[in-house]
């Protein structure tokens, strides 16, 4: 072992043992001198500790890291077991046709971001966009214009660490007063919210947090598998879009010579990418962004059997206000003409979001299997795991328990 080796922080060691990291980058964002984000096989983003953390830093790490768990309080809001606390739920879409077309689901999120800039609520948006160097990859981008928001629109089914530069953005706020809206995965939003509750400077730098329903983070290997199914390679690809430019939009690879290859969302996500989702996402209690102020998702229509219909259509966003601030900002965006909204019956949500529904119902069984196998698990408080599990038949819970136990006891592969 090298003489300069630094043992991982206690929290980080537990995360590594249980393969719990979601790759949000919050730890590297807070402690850039001690933790770096690296790409590891099969293509996930993971923290690498380069120097020791102080006891205070260790405590901060443990308090904000979503891999270790999450605590949620309804605080008087409606709090259904599957979807988490919220104040209002509706459908809608961007009134700007370009934003609506570019967005993965009606451009509701993009339109809200654009409104926040134009109304002076924030000065810039911290979000995830396509990597300039890796067509199937992501990078954190800062948007200040409608065009920049449009370019970053559309789902990006690949690892992202949008909190990797958190300390630098807080420092910029303290120096210049620049305020940011943040949009990221539910785990990203949870980490940032946890930091905001313990640090006033971070809360002032990020007055608005937005998120989206997330079905999990596939590896870069998953992205390459989509390219292979399209009959091309990463080396031949100049740019790649997972979704958007329509609803749901196609996975589209554009070659260096301009040739386009595309496949449906059903085939790309359902047939390939969903099979490459990281372990942490399979035991996530929050795929719906409960820590955010505003959350958007696909408001799919469902067929006679209650299953979502993925035929191309003008995009419709599910828009959820989770806080009073979120509800106020949505109302302002509607009054300003940035979005149009319609009432939505929350009872219909289970039918149009079956992936979220089934994962939440199965979670308690999966976590119980991991604990029995001696594997570290996240600590969830206020996320109603028992209530969600009771919505499942006993046989389905048993199937999830045994399936996870089998995977947990299987010898782990080393990279």
Describe this structure in words.
By secondary structure, this protein is α/β, with parallel strands linked by helices. It has a domain at 88-218 and 276-354: Aspartate Aminotransferase, domain 2 (3-Layer(aba) Sandwich). It is 37% helix and 18% strand. Strands 6-5-7-8-12-13-4-14 form an 8-stranded mixed sheet, with helices on both faces. It has a 3-stranded antiparallel sheet with strand order 9-10-11. The radius of gyration is 20 Å and the shape is globular. The protein starts with 9 loop residues before the first helix and ends in a 6-residue tail after the last helix. The mean pLDDT is 94.
- Separate helix tally: 17
Beta-strand fraction estimate: 15-25%
End-to-end separation in angstroms reads 18 Å
Cross-sheet strand order for the largest sheet: 6-5-7-8-12-13-4-14
Proper CATH architecture of the domain at 88-218 and 276-354? 3-Layer(aba) Sandwich
CATH topology type of the domain at 88-218 and 276-354: Aspartate Aminotransferase, domain 2
Task: Give the helices and strands, then pairings.
Blueprint: H1 10-18, H2 26-30, E1 35-40, E2 44-49, H3 55-64, E3 69-71, E4 88-94, H4 97-102, H5 108-118, E5 124-130, E6 138-143, H6 146-152, H7 166-176, E7 180-183, H8 186-198, H9 200-205, E8 208-212, H10 220-229, E9 237-241, E10 251-255, E11 260-263, H11 265-271, H12 279-282, E12 294-298, E13 317-321, H13 324-335, E14 339-343, H14 349-352, H15 354-372, E15 379-381, H16 385-389, H17 394-409
Helix pairs in contact: 15-17
């Amino acid at each position: 072992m090298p003489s300069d080796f630094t043992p991982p922080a206690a929290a980080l060691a537990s995360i590594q043992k249980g393969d719990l990291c979601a790759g949000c980058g919050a730890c590297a964002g807070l402690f850039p001198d001690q933790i770096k984000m690296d790409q590891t096989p099969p293509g996930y983003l993971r923290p690498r500790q380069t120097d020791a953390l102080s006891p205070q830093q260790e405590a901060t790490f443990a308090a904000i890291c979503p891999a270790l768990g999450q605590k949620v309080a309804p605080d008087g809001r409606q709090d259904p077991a599957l979807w988490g606390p919220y104040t209002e739920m509706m459908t809608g879409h961007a009134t700007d046709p370009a934003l609506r077309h570019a967005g993965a689901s009606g451009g509701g999120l993009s339109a809200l971001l654009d409104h926040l800039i134009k109304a002076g609520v924030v000065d810039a948006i911290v979000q995830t966009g396509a990597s300039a160097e890796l067509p199937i990859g992501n990078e954190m981008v800062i948007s200040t214009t409608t065009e920049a928001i449009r370019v970053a629109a559309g789902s990006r089914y690949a690892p992202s660490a949008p909190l990797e530069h958190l300390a630098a953005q807080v420092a910029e706020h303290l120096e210049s007063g620049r305020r940011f809206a943040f949009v990221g995965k539910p785990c990203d939003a949870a980490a940032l919210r946890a930091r905001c509750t313990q640090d006033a400077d971070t809360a002032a730098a990020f007055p608005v947090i937005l998120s989206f329903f997330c079905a999990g983070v596939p590896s870069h290997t998953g992205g390459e598998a989509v390219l292979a199914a399209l009959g091309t390679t990463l080396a031949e690809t100049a740019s790649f879009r997972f979704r958007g430019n329509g609803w749901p939009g196609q996975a589209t690879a554009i070659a260096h010579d301009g040739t386009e290859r595309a496949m449906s969302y059903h085939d790309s996500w359902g047939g390939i990418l969903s099979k490459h989702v990281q372990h942490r996402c399979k035991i996530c209690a929050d795929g719906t962004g409960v820590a955010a102020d505003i959350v958007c998702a696909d408001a799919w229509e469902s067929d006679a059997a209650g299953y979502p219909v993925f035929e191309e259509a003008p995009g419709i966003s599910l828009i959820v206000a989770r806080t009073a601030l979120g509800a106020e900002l949505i109302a302002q965006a509607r009054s300003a003409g940035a979005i149009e909204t319609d009432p939505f019956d929350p009872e219909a949500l289970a039918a149009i979001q079956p992936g979220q529904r089934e994962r939440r119902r199965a979670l308690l069984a999966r976590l119980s299997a991991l604990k029995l196998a001696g594997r570290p698990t996240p600590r969830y408080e206020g996320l109603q795991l028992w209530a969600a599990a009771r919505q499942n038949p006993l046989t389905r819970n048993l199937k999830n328990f045994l399936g996870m136990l089998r995977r947990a006891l299987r010898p782990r592969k080393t990279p």
